[in-house]
Amino acid sequence: xxxxxxxxxxxxxxxxxxxxxxxxxxxxxxxxxxxxxxxxxxxxxxxxxxxxxxxxxxxxxxxxxxxxxxxxxxxxxxxxxxxxxxxxxxxxxxxxxxxxxxxxxxxxxxxxxxxxxxxxxxxxxxxxxxxxxxxxxxxxxxxxxxxxxxxxxxxxxxxxxxxxxxxxxxxxxxxxxxxxxxxxxxxxxxxxxxxxxxxxxxxxxxxxxxxxxxxxxxxxxxxxxxxxxx
Length: 230
Hints:
alpha/beta
């Protein structure tokens, strides 16, 4: 019953946020409306893929599959809200465009793709893993190269805490060189570590399609909050 209530509340707030964007656009003139629409191009990165499975849970669940499930839901929600959205991958594959060098890490290709989209905002979806199996909860890393990235990260985490993880005490962190795509980013960029696959209870949630949808709802709301305030 509690989960159903959470889904319903998040669903209502997501739509309210979407309608807020639409109302803003309707109040602007045609030229300004086109500017607003072109300003936000969300690029979704489902971390890993193909031969690169990412981390894995004790039961063999691969991170790449959870990442993709969340991204596919997130893509649908953002597009429904009228937000220009692009997914770097929408299947189980690494990102190697036709003719690209497969000896080169696909992280370089992903960064090239983000940079090829005008006025892009990067939201990369990943899962965490730690030797202490009691660790749990979302945490968001953000690039130091674009000031508004911290606000985007905080918007996503605060809304997720409000509706899904009220006991989560984690704080967001600025990325270092170990997070290549964030370290090199020149646009607003965040990496959402949705949860810990090393925690059996949380991993079971992360594998569940309904929970993936709930995460996608709250991340969508966080992105909308960022856009409405930027």
